[in-house]
Every structure is written in C-alpha cells, then in structure tokens.
Amino acid sequence: MPKVGRLAPDEEHTQSVIFEKSAGWTEASSRKWCEEHDYYTDGLDETDKQYRWRQYDPDYEAFIYRNKEIEPNSISLVLGIPKKDAVEFQQKELVMRYSYVMKAFVETPWAILPYKLAILEEIVIRHVAGEKLDPDEVQMRIHGAKRPVDRRMGSVAVLPLFGTIFPRANLMTQVSGATSAEMFGRQFGELVKDPEVGAIVLDVDSPGGQVGGIEELSKQIYKSRGIKPIVAVANHVMDSAAYWIGSAADEVVITPSGEVGSIGVFAVHEDISKQLEQDGINLTVIKEGKYKAEGNPWEPLSEEAKAAIQVRVSEAYEAFITAVAINRGVTLADVRNGFGEGRAVGARQALELGMADRIGTLDETLDRLQRQLFTLSEEQKQQAEDLRIKVSHILNKEQ
C-alpha cells in the first residue's frame, strides 16, 4: 500500500478507505485515522452512511472495485482496478490461485472434515495473494474459538489438541492456533517423563488435518499406555486425524454434545483447463521426467495420475483404520464397516459402537482423575491412624 510522499507502484490503480458512520466515525476522526496509518487523503466523498477518502485517481467511473475489510463493519479498504485491465487481472488471479502452492496444499492426503479444508483453502489463497492475516480473525473463522492453553490441575496435565493438525509448525499453526503434530508429540513425551505428572488429559477440539506425522504420533501415545493414565476428551470435536490420535489413549471420553469419528482420507484435484481456455489463457507445461508434471491443474487429470493419487489416499486410509482397530481393541471390519464409515457420530452412538468409553465433560474427567491419583504416603497413613486412636480414647473417657 503506498505511503505518503511516494508514488503508487502503478498509477492506473487507485485505493480508497471507507469509514462507516454507523460505527461512530466522523470526518475528523476518519481523517486522523488516515494520517496515523499513512494513507493518502487526496479527496473526500461523503454519503449518508460513509466517508470515503480517495487515495489516488478520482475518476471512479473507470474502475472496478474490490473490497477488503480492515475492521468488520467499520473500515474497508477499496482497491480500484481499471475496467480495461480487469479481465487480465482476474486471469492473473486465477493462475495464482491454482499455483503449485495450492496444488501441494489440497492434493496432500487429508484426514479432515471437508468443509474445514474449504475454509483453509480460502485462507491460503488470501495469503498467497499477499493479504495480511490477522491471527484472531483466522482462529475465529476456522475454529470459532481461540486456542486453549496448556495447564495443570494438581498432578493432572492438560494438553490441548486444537484446530487443524499439520505435520510441523508453519504459517497456519502460527496464525490460526492450529496444532503441529511434531510439537504435540514432543510436549506429550515431556509430560510422560515428568515425575510430577500423574496423568495426562488430551483436551481435543479438532476436525483433523493432514495425515503426515499422525500415524507416528498415534503410535507414540499408544506405546505410552501403562506408564501413567492417558485420557482423550472429545471437547467437543475429535474427528478424522484427531480421532486417529485420540483413540490411542487409555480412555476416550466424549462430551454430551460432542462428536467423534469421520474415519477417512481424501485428496482434491482441481482442473481449471476449461476455465483457462474460456479466458483465453494458453499455458504450456515443459517438463523432464515422465510423471514430473502429473496432476497439474492446467490440464485434465489423466486416469494414470488419478490412480496414483488414489494409491496415496488408500495407503493412508488403511494405516488409519489399522491404528484405530489396535487402539480400540477391535477388528478392522469393526472400524471399516461400523465406526461411522467416514461419518462423525454423536456421544450415545459413539458409546454403542465402541468408539468412546464414557460420556463426560473435561471438568468431570479432571475431577475423577484427581480423586484417583490422591493417595496417602505410609507416614500420612500412620499419622491418620494415630489421630483416629486419640479421638477414640477421648470419646471413650467422656462416656
């Protein structure tokens, strides 16, 4: 965005900032905001509802405008694209959207609720387009809540498994409060070794995520059984990759309104070749290596490429159901044909199918574990017995 005293990078583009009067903005306060944020104030257009401070070309009739919200229902940035350049701009945007960044993102096998992947895709597109992502906004858009913090309740450690799960820390884990499987595994391992931790509760609220690192994390939790109690609480969503992980705990608890399951894997291929043809864009793929450009979005997906993607999805799915069968002590057929068959299920059905062990809240689970872990040392037991005897003697004398 151009700063005061500088020329805009493209003089044919214009920018304006709109302030909604309903949010309490006045001409003076909106002007001050522009000055504080280094926006141009070349001219002002006022309507009954808004103040629009022009930043560049005042010839609005020549432009197509695209809105970008700065503050919901308060301030909007308007980017003007010359009508004569609009088609070219939209074509460039289309190519950008289906770049190899997006191809790598959506074609990776996912164990996640499909509508959540669509939301993530939108956020990645906005990021690739250069839009700054506000962490709080992203968290609310994806999860509807902010990430809970790690905590201790007495000797019970609570480790959140929150949001979308990615193999490693990345942009999405930073801005959305999502979970890195690698970091989660490291934190879990430290809690297992910590002598002051008597039990571990996985506070799960996740629609799943990418499959990378999930099998390893599930095995890590399963192998830690017997060292100290491990309880996974679906609080309130434990779906797809999150269930792959949570089912490895000693016990799975689901809140009364919670859901678990969605056992399945999928990948997405988007073919934009017809759209490119319609827009008059001709892309030529030049490659070396038989399969190097296989599955690109600019050409129709071949049957051979589709089969290769299906192999990856099938392999991940088999690993998923095998892990769940081992974790829950059931057969592969039970998981494949009985554990929702790719659907998420509610609390009562989860108990009936054997996907969860009990219905309860996170607080109830913490209270129960704390009571179980409360034990007296031999010295404390002897002191209690001595006190009981003294009280008994006093009572006998009074009688």
Quick take:
By secondary structure, the protein is α/β, with parallel strands linked by helices. Helix content is 43%, strand content 21%.
End-to-end Cα distance: 90 Å
Instruction: Give me the number of helical elements.
Output: 15
CATH class of the domain at 141-267 and 303-373: Alpha Beta
CATH architecture of the domain at 141-267 and 303-373: Alpha-Beta Complex
Q: Flag low-confidence runs.
A: 1-12
* Count of extended strands: 17
Q: How would the global form be characterised?
A: flat
How is this structure best described in words?
It is a single chain. This protein is α/β, with parallel strands linked by helices. Among the domains are: 14-84; 141-267 and 303-373, 2-enoyl-CoA Hydratase, Chain A, domain 1, CATH 3.90.226.10. It is 43% helix and 21% strand. The chain is built from 15 helices and 17 strands. The protein has helices at residues 27-36, 83-97, 100-107, 114-128, 135-143, 171-176, 181-193, 214-223, 241-246, 273-278, 303-328, 332-338, 347-353, 362-373, 378-398; strands at residues 14-20, 43-46, 50-54, 63-71, 75-82, 110-112, 151-153, 156-162, 165-166, 179-180, 199-206, 208-210, 230-239, 251-254, 259-261, 344-346, 358-359. Strands 7, 8, 11, 13, 14, 15, 16 and 17 form an 8-stranded mixed beta sheet that branches. A 5-stranded antiparallel beta sheet has the order 2-3-1-5-4. Helix 7 packs parallel to helix 8 (214-223) and helix 8 (214-223) runs parallel beside helix 11 (303-328). Residues 1-12 have low confidence and may be disordered.
